[in-house]
Fold this sequence. Notes:
Largest sheet: none
Amino acid sequence: MKLKALIAQYVAFRKSLGARFENREGRLNAFCRWMGEEINVTDVQAERVNAFLRRHRPSQPQLAGEMWSIERPLSLCDQPRLS
């Protein structure tokens, strides 16, 4: 499964539950662009995820929890969690 499709599926799922997900959707889409929109979920490497998180660290402490939870959609495909 492509990362872009997985993120779209996760965003649609959260919105179907009534979540206001615009900010997180933007962060996940930025993550997808960083990784490459055609990358398969199985090809996502922890080093690149960590590089994204280091580079895109939020300036506001209250946003840190949202940003650091970016690996959550990846767990939907029974992939090992990123540390």
